[in-house]
Amino acid sequence: MSSAKPFARSACAVANSLDIVGDKWTLLVVRDLLHGKNTYGELADSPEHIPTNILAERLKRLEAAGIVVGTPYQERPVRYAYTLTPKGKALGDVLLAFVRWGKQHIPGTMVMGQGTAAKTAATPRTRKTRAK
Amino acid sequence: MSSAKPFARSACAVANSLDIVGDKWTLLVVRDLLHGKNTYGELADSPEHIPTNILAERLKRLEAAGIVVGTPYQERPVRYAYTLTPKGKALGDVLLAFVRWGKQHIPGTMVMGQGTAAKTAATPRTRKTRAK
DNA sequence: CCATAAACTTGCAAAATGCAAGTTACTTGA
DNA sequence: TCAAGTAACTTGCATTTTGCAAGTTTATGG
Predict the structure, then answer these.
(1) Do A27 and B14 touch (CB under 8 A)?
(2) Residue B37: which domain range?
(3) In this complex, do B93 and A97 lie within 8 Å of one another by their Cβ atoms?
(4) Which pick of A30, A111, A124, B54 has the fewest CB atoms within 10 Å?
(5) What's B82's domain CATH number?
(6) Angstrom distance (rounded) from CA B55 to CA B38
């Protein structure tokens, strides 16, 4: 029997997915790669302005996870173009689910690069919170 | 025109979704609520063992975000039963996308509560991408 | 009266994040 | 030749978030 703990937290597919892409930045990098960006500079220039040290670390982690591959597009100095593997491209479905949820439930949000004509969530009137 | 900055990072639906649920724990809480758990204790007992201070903080944030509502199920001491709002239930699609991705791409993961018979990702034998 | 329990809260230590500045290895224009 | 620019990182450090353990509050059962 295998006694070694195979998973960090549990065998749940959601938990293990979150161990890879469960933070504020990783899926934004994947989003940009899906949109055709592929150099460090292009990724760093996105509207959310990811800190450069975080970007570098995330690219390493995504590469280690088999989601991204970096292929040199020039020698001297060597520069890498980052692209998604099939595993990475498959995250498109997750991104799509987030887009749909965000557009329906977070007023004003939209899919970048589609202008204001895109359907967004209506601003709710009131919302009350329980008193302490 | 509105001059106040409406979004923390950008107007992207993905970025704003991640500002709410983009961490290692939040979607696991939502997963459990979708699976019918609703007390603090039930949520704390999940296999991932969320630290109790994190659980308390996440429940507050989810309530503030309109994803969860806490209704008292007893007074003295007052205890809350947490349930998902429609906005919260709608995250089921995101969870489902994560489940599909995890099962296909993270070997050994599965949907909790479905036993080992559930389809999981094959340990990468040499498998070529099948024709669709 | 005492042990147990659920639901939080508090106190840190450790890790992750974010900002700015520095470094490396070139390319380009004067 | 030499200064300036540029892409891609790296480093330092202050702030924030996480995680573990222990404590608190209100109540119940023996």
Answers:
(1) yes
(2) 13-89
(3) yes
(4) A124
(5) 1.10.10.10
(6) 12
Is residue A77 domain-resident? yes
Contacts of A13 in chain B (CB under 8 A): 98-99, 101-103, 106, 109-111
Helix (H, G, I), strand (E, B) or coil at A71: strand
Residue of A nearest to B105 (CA): A87
Whether residue A3 has pLDDT greater than 50: no
Tens of pLDDT, residues B22-35: 999 999 999 999 99
**pLDDT by residue (tens digit) across A49-78?**
999 999 999 999 999 999 999 998 777 777
Interface of A with B in 62-81 (CB under 8 A): none
Most B CBs within 10 Å, among A87, A106, A130, to test the B interface:
A106
**Do both B67 and B85 map to the same domain?**
yes
